[in-house]
Amino acid sequence: MMRTIVLGSCVSIQGQFEKSHPDGRISVRVGEKVFVGTPVVKTA
Fold first, then answer.
1. How distant, in Å, are the alpha carbons of 9, 14, 15, 18 from that of 1?
2. What is the 3-state secondary structure (H, E, C) of 18-36?
3. Which residues contact 14 (CB under 8 A, 6 or more apart)?
4. Do residues 13 and 4 lie in contact, with contact meaning Cβ atoms separated by under 8 Å?
5. Using CB atoms within 10 A as the burial measure, which of 4, 7, 10, 31 is most buried?
6. Partners of 13 in beta bridges
7. Could you give the CA distance from residue 13 to residue 22 in angstroms, rounded to a whole number?
8. CA–CA distance from 38 to each of 5, 13, 18, 28 (Å)?
9. Which contacts (CB < 8 Å, 24+ apart) does range 35-42 have?
10. Ramachandran bin of 15, using left for φ above 0, alpha for ψ from -120 to 50, beta for the remaining angles
């Protein structure tokens, strides 16, 4: 499943979902790199 995360105030990354962390952040994989950040919330 593709997910989008935010790193800092301006950078967003979209990649393959890896795992959830206890503090609410998630990990996504882009190629061989894994990034951890705050998930983007879906709006209606």
1. 24, 10, 8, 9
2. EEECCCCCEEEEECCEEEE
3. 2, 3, 4, 5, 28, 30
4. yes
5. 4
6. 5
7. 20
8. 5, 10, 13, 10
9. 35/5, 35/7, 36/5, 37/5, 37/6, 37/7, 37/13, 38/5, 38/6, 39/3, 39/4, 39/5, 39/6, 40/3, 40/4, 40/5, 40/6, 40/12
10. beta
User: Does this model's pTM top 0.70?
Assistant: yes
Question: Taking Cα atoms as reference points, which of 12, 39, 15, 42 lies closest to residue 29?
Answer: 15
DSSP run (H or E) holding 43? none
Instruction: Look at residue 17 in the predicted model and tell me its pLDDT.
Output: 97
- At 12, list the tokens: 């967003």
